[in-house]
Design brief:
The protein is an alpha+beta fold and about 130 residues long. It has 5 helices and 6 strands; from the N terminus they run H-E-E-E-H-E-E-H-H-H-E. Strands 1-2-3-6-5-4 form a 6-stranded antiparallel β-barrel. The protein starts with 5 loop residues before the first helix and ends in a 5-residue tail after the last strand.
Length: about 130
């Protein structure tokens, strides 16, 4: 499995928002949703404020593939549920990245509901 290229990782990881679109039942990309993204080392993570019941999150669980766009980078990705042992570190990354927002806003990604809906974004190989 390939990882993120340094330049892509930097651009996406330093972006405030990310557009995420999963593949629907018909094999086409769904309408993108805007969400927050954080970088933890060489990995990128997203969370659903509304937990596993959110429509966009449920879409990622169907085919586990889709497309993201942020920081001028668009990549096809695989969606992998993040392991719970990273929750505290991902929380810290969200707190650091979005500290300029009020706790009422930024705290939405730190709830048990949001933590249960944490996804690691893995880039899929590009075809030439």
């Amino acid at each position: 499995m390939t990882g993120w290229r340094g330049e892509d990782l930097e651009k996406i990881g330093s972006s405030d928002e990310l557009q995420i679109a999963s593949i629907g039942p018909d094999g086409a990309l769904r309408k993108p949703t805007t969400i927050w993204v954080v970088r933890l080392g060489d990995d990128l993570f997203v969370r659903s404020v509304n937990g596993r019941a959110a429509a966009w999150f449920r879409g990622t669980q169907m085919h586990h593939e889709g497309r993201i766009s942020a920081g001028g980078v668009t990549r096809d990705v695989t969606f992998v549920d993040a392991k719970g042992d990273l929750d505290d570190r991902i929380d810290d990354a969200y707190r650091t990245e979005y500290r300029r927002y009020s706790p009422g806003i930024a705290g939405g990604v730190l709830t048990p509901q949001a933590r249960s809906a944490t996804i690691r974004l893995i880039p899929r190989p590009t075809t030439s």
